[in-house]
Write a structure and sequence with these properties.
single chain, 204 residues, mainly beta, three-stranded antiparallel β-sheet, 3 helices, globular, binds FE2/S2 (inorganic) cluster
């Protein structure tokens, strides 16, 4: 069954449908202002029913994700983002380590192969569980340069959680002085081919 959902339209809180589907949370939305226009978002929930039932790996075709876009799939009941980062997005990961809680990914929020500056096997392809590490809301992707009082003036691009204002860069690294305590989680994954990723399987 195709579970295609619309992607976020900006910094606005997730749609009601998104919330019903994903929100683990909280009932305590912080009322943060909505702004900005999100980068392209390929929202395609199409894991097989068998894979979903078993909690098994979910295969993702990354070939259809445009530069700067995100595809979201469901794995073990969680949204998993697969983002194709541009060279500009990768460059923007540098220069703000002092503003981050865990810039070197010291905490166990990722497999060993994603413990690197890009937090990825291939720098251009970022895979992360799209659940805020505070109380479980689903952040939105917000491009570099978006102007909003809820974001740093030199916003490098990344993710914004509308519930209580946590901010993460485009490698899912959380900014200091925000409620979320840790970076976004990177799920186990591996490349099944040049253009296909298996989420939930890193054994090969
Ligand atoms: S759930 Fe509280 S900041 Fe994300």
């Amino acid at each position: 069954m195709d579970h295609t959902l619309p992607g976020p339209a900006g910094l606005a809180p997730p749609s009601d449908r998104d919330r019903r589907f994903w929100l683990v949370a909280t009932g305590a939305a912080g009322g943060v202002a909505a702004v900005g226009t999100a980068i392209p978002f390929v929202a395609s929930f199409a894991p097989s029913e068998r894979a979903k039932a078993a909690g098994g790996p979910v295969e993702v075709d990354i070939g259809e994700i445009p530069p700067g876009g995100i595809k979201t799939v469901e794995w073990r009941g969680k949204p998993v983002w697969v983002m194709r980062r541009t060279p500009e997005m990768l460059a923007a990961l540098q220069g703000h380590d002092a503003q981050l809680v865990d810039p070197q990914s010291a905490k166990e929020q990722q497999p060993a192969y994603a413990k690197n500056p890009a937090r990825a096997i291939r720098p251009e392809v970022f895979v992360a569980i799209g659940i805020c590490t505070h109380l479980g809301c689903s952040p939105s992707d917000v491009p570099k340069g978006t102007a909003n009082p809820s974001l740093p003036a030199d916003w490098p691009g990344g993710f914004f959680c509308p519930c209580h204002g946590s901010t993460f860069d485009a490698a899912g690294r959380v900014f200091k002085n925000k409620p979320a305590p840790t970076n976004l989680e990177i799920p186990p994954h591996r490349y099944a081919s040049d253009t296909r990723i298996l989420i939930g399987d890193d054994t090969a």
